[in-house]
Design goal:
The complex is a heterodimer of chains A (72) and B (637).
Chain A (H helix, E strand, L loop, with lengths): L1 E7 L4 H12 L4 E7 L4 E6 L4 H15 L4 E3 L1
Antiparallel strand pairs in A: 1-3, 1-4, 2-3
Helix pairs in contact in A: 1-2
Chain B lengths: L2 H26 L2 H5 L2 H32 L6 H14 L10 H32 L7 E5 L2 E5 L9 E4 L9 E5 L2 E4 L1 H4 L5 E3 L4 E2 L4 E2 L4 E5 L7 H12 L5 H30 L5 H13 L4 H20 L2 E3 L2 H8 L1 E7 L5 E12 L5 H11 L6 H9 L9 E7 L3 E6 L2 E6 L1 H7 L11 E7 L2 E12 L3 H10 L4 E5 L4 H11 L3 E3 L4 H12 L8 E6 L5 H6 L2 E5 L5 H6 L2 E3 L5 H36 L5 H20 L7
Parallel strand pairs in B: 11-18, 11-20, 18-19, 20-21, 21-22
Antiparallel strand pairs in B: 1-2, 1-3, 3-9, 4-7, 4-9, 5-6, 5-8, 10-22, 12-17, 13-14, 14-15, 15-16, 16-17
Classes of the chains: A alpha+beta (72), B alpha+beta (637).
């Protein structure tokens, strides 16, 4: 399943690149893309565990930029 | 500015004012003599500078602390914290001069830079969103004889909607009632309005300027032109350019390396007895201030985003930053002739009978033979025939793709087609080098004469080719199914370098393949321009596939990398110019930012640069790079 989320308070371009890298490595994620300009996160991942994967992505994002949240 | 940015701005202003006061106090008031000792004065200064420092940077310190806990060292918060705390701590080395002012200033200017970045990015995102403000808010649907406003997403295909003057067409459809002028400029950049009447297709996103239109919708909102365009432009920055990926990779290495050198610089020389600890530690801290690659990491995608946004304002949709990048190095442009360089609407220009006086008969037979065809040539022949077509007379119609058509008309076996058809039918005919497409007509094996059909070049085609050459495109190539003579005459009129004629649709792919592999000398990229209807394989094969006249054509939007909304070939050169400008700005920023940073690093290592210079290198460069990147959005019509 592929889904796009809006990201709130994504302030730093370098962090966006780091987030993309970390989220891509989450188990079950086929591909991830953080679009800094549009403030969007696109995740292509295992449908069955999708919610858990988005949770993991949020956790990864919070580590890099604590204010930044995925809008679901 | 949003709430968060306004709060930040207020904090910075307060911190700046306090900083200026403290700076003036420590600089001009005789603190030493008031407090009795120079040492005491230094500690008072320390406390005074701590106030603006904390006001400006407490959140940076907090974030740095949190990041250390979660194992993310080396992020910009951490680096700035270490650099500034380090500068303050130098007060503990009584042999060095105090560096509190610098510590506070670094934090202050760092925050100014951050605020500016966030503001600039928000601003350009917003202005691109405004540029793309073509999404309709509602659709007027007839319900029980009353007009109701509903969300366009809820309108079913085949519904009748009413578009009043001044409203935006909410969904793609066909006009069933009313005539009006449509303003398509938001989609195509074309300022001339388009006239529509019953039977015309209308495209969502256009503005109805004058009359009242009733439209029968042909697509749901999700598939309508407006949503496709918005989706395309928004997703364009997902496809990252090579330069962008390079910078991201570079940033990953740059910070650890600079920090590593900073650490070595602070420790090794003093251990080797080359100077005081405080001096070298300060040099190391100065390194940290320039160790953040933000200016680059932010300005590159911002430039691409701006370029794509600016292009879309002209009706040029680029589907990814990577395609914008490829477009900049295009040196060969291959055109499909019909519909791209020419109008694609054929007109009979003359009839040349073998025996004088046969003109009327030739046209009549040709019009009847072509009576059932939708081919543009057939349409033009029927349009030129003034009489009525009696379909009862026509039987045994046999169309031969790439050759022509044969039919029995009123008992006569008629062949209408090109040289190849005449050869296969064994008809002796006069070879001609007439310009335009030649349609031979023969009846019962006897040659009657030929019809000349011309497809006029588009009004801006000559200018378009000239503009391409001026933009540095070395080679323009035209592919066509036409006869060589006809093709060459068009090519020479337009100033095209190379022509490949008499190609069947599948030959075009081969021809492009051949051009793509064109020897080791080829360094630039190849762009193929087609009208997108049956060019999908070629569009995908070329380095950059450009589809033209895509107002409402799904196939084109799907297959192409760059979509020109209106059918003006001059937009190709414009697209290339925009891409070149974007790449120029991207490289300016890369070279400028890296140049300044390396210069400051070297100066800091040899002890010439202080923190003031370093913070300029960091924040100043970021601000200049962002301002430069924002130029990408400005495009000339």
């Amino acid at each position: 399943m592929r889904k796009t989320f809006k990201l709130n308070d994504l302030d730093c371009a370098n962090c966006a690149a780091k987030m993309q890298e970390v989220i891509s490595k989450i188990d079950g994620v086929t591909s991830a893309n953080v679009n800094f300009m549009m403030q969007k996160l696109t995740i292509d991942a295992d449908s069955e565990r999708f919610d858990a994967i988005v949770d993991a992505a949020q956790a990864a994002i919070s580590k890099i930029e604590p204010d930044c949240t995925i809008v679901r | 500015m949003n709430k968060k940015q306004r709060r930040m701005r207020n904090r910075i202003v307060i911190a700046l004012v306090l900083f200026a006061i403290v700076y003036a106090v420590t600089e001009f008031l005789p603190l030493d003599s008031w407090l009795g000792s120079a040492r005491a004065a230094v500690y008072v200064e320390f406390a005074l500078f701590l106030v603006p420092y904390l006001i400006a940077g407490y959140d940076v310190l907090l974030r740095a602390g949190r990041n250390i806990k979660s194992g993310h060292m080396l992020d910009e918060n951490f680096l700035m914290s270490v650099a500034t705390i380090g500068a303050f701590s130098l007060v503990l080395f009584p042999d060095s001069g105090p560096h509190m002012a610098e510590g506070a200033a670094v934090m202050l200017f760092y925050q100014v830079g951050e605020l500016f970045q966030s503001y600039a990015v928000g601003k350009s995102r917003q202005s691109i969103a405004e540029m793309m403000d073509i999404a309709p808010d509602y659709a007027n649907v007839m319900d029980d004889g009353r007009l109701v406003q509903v969300d366009p997403t809820e309108v079913a295909v085949g519904s009748r909607i009413v578009v009043k003057a001044g409203e935006r067409v909410p969904l793609d459809g066909v006009v069933v009632d009313g005539t009006s002028q449509l303003d398509t400029s938001a989609l195509t950049g074309e300022s001339l309005p388009r006239t529509v009447e019953p039977g015309s297709d209308v495209i969502s996103g256009c503005v109805n300027m004058t009359g009242l239109l009733t439209v029968e919708t042909t697509k749901p909102f999700g598939e309508s032109t407006v949503s496709r365009i918005l989706e395309l432009v928004e997703n364009a920055s997902d496809k990252k350019a090579r330069t962008e990926n390079f910078i991201t990779r570079f940033a990953r290495w740059y910070t650890p390396i600079v920090v590593g050198i900073a650490a070595l610089l602070a420790v090794i020389p003093p251990l080797a007895g080359m100077g005081s600890w405080s001096d070298w530690v300060f040099r190391g801290l100065t390194f940290l201030v320039v160790s953040c690659p933000c200016a680059l990491v932010i300005s590159v995608p911002l430039s691409f985003f701006g370029g794509i946004g600016g292009a879309s304002k002209l009706g040029i949709l680029v589907k990814g930053s990577n395609y914008l990048e490829a477009l900049a190095s295009v040196d060969t442009v291959v055109f499909d002739k019909t519909g791209t360089l020419t109008n694609g609407s054929f007109v009979v220009t003359s009839v040349k009978p073998a025996h004088p006086g046969d003109e009327e008969r030739i046209l009549r037979l040709a019009a009847h033979a072509e009576a059932f065809s939708d081919h543009p040539i057939a349409l033009s022949v029927r349009a030129a025939f003034s009489g009525d077509i009696d379909t009862a007379q026509i039987c045994d119609v046999e169309e031969r793709s790439g050759h022509g058509v044969m039919a029995t008309i009123g008992g006569e076996r008629v062949s209408v087609g090109n040289d190849k058809l005449m050869h296969t039918c064994g008809i002796i005919f006069d070879e001609t080098d007439t310009q335009g497409t030649v349609l031979h007509v023969a009846a019962n094996g006897t040659y009657l004469g030929f019809i000349v059909i011309a497809d006029e070049p588009k009004p801006d085609a000559v200018a378009a080719i000239r503009a391409l050459h001026e933009a540095g495109v070395r080679r323009t190539v035209m592919l066509t199914g036409d006869r060589l003579a006809a093709a060459q005459s068009v090519a020479s009129r337009l100033g095209i370098d190379e022509v490949h004629a008499q190609l069947l649709p599948q030959d075009k792919v081969e021809e492009v393949e051949r051009l793509l592999s064109g020897g080791a000398a080829r360094t630039g990229k190849l762009a193929f321009v087609g009208d997108g209807i049956n060019d999908a394989p070629v569009l995908t094969r070329a380095d950059v596939g450009i589809a033209m006249g895509a107002m409402g054509s799904d196939a084109a939007i799907e297959a192409a990398d760059v979509v020109l909304m209106d059918d003006k070939p001059s937009n190709i050169a414009r697209a290339i110019r925009i891409s070149r400008k974007t790449m120029r700005i991207v490289w300016q920023n890369i070279v400028f930012a890296l140049g300044v940073k390396f210069a400051v690093l070297v100066l800091a290592a040899i002890g010439v640069a202080n923190m003031w210079l370093a913070v300029f290198a960091d924040v100043g460069v970021a601000i200049l790079a962002i301002l430069n990147a924002m130029r990408c959005m400005n495009v000339r019509k």
